[in-house]
Amino acid sequence: MREIISDVINGKFIIILDDESRENEGDLVISGSLVNHESISLMSKLGGGVPVVAISQSIATKLDLKILERRNISENGAMYAQTVDARYGLTGNGCSTHDRALTIQTLANPLTTVDEITTPGHVMTVIGHKDGLNARLGHTEASISLMKIAGFSEVALICEVIGDHGNPLKGISLMKFADYHEIKITTIDNIKSYK
Description:
Elements: H1 2-9, E1 14-17, E2 26-31, H2 37-47, E3 52-55, H3 57-62, E4 79-86, H4 97-108, E5 117-127, H5 139-149, E6 155-160, H6 171-180, E7 184-187, H7 188-193
Parallel strand pairs: 1-7, 3-5
Antiparallel strand pairs: 1-2, 2-6, 3-6, 4-5
Helix pairs in contact: 2-4
């Protein structure tokens, strides 16, 4: 875990893998505090999934982010919330990688108030369970927990790793992807058990 934490602190991507009995998939993860337009572009190219900002329930409450209406979904499913933009400093309409990076940095800034974000916007958010990994062993909760361990605001940009075939990479294929791109992998269980 020390190398994983070091990479997070240095603004590098890591991959969080969940359990084989769950999705058995990996998410690219980077600190919301350190995200920039280059990392957003690279995440889109490498990950292939939909980038979303994982945010703790306490920060979501402070910023008055509302959970989207849930229908035909498991009670333990991801808690997707409103899309957002930064209210100040955008260079365009919020869609560019520069603007999305600013929005994510704004979410991660502990001094940000509810008046500094607008909704709807161009950045998707998902709120972690209030009891974290003790209640839900998801990529959302694991990435939020890892940010806390690394000393950052509990905000992370995450994106599922999708292969060229259009489906999530798993097992050996995911390991080869990580080796090729020199991205370290950890598991949700490792994060939960870290002291």
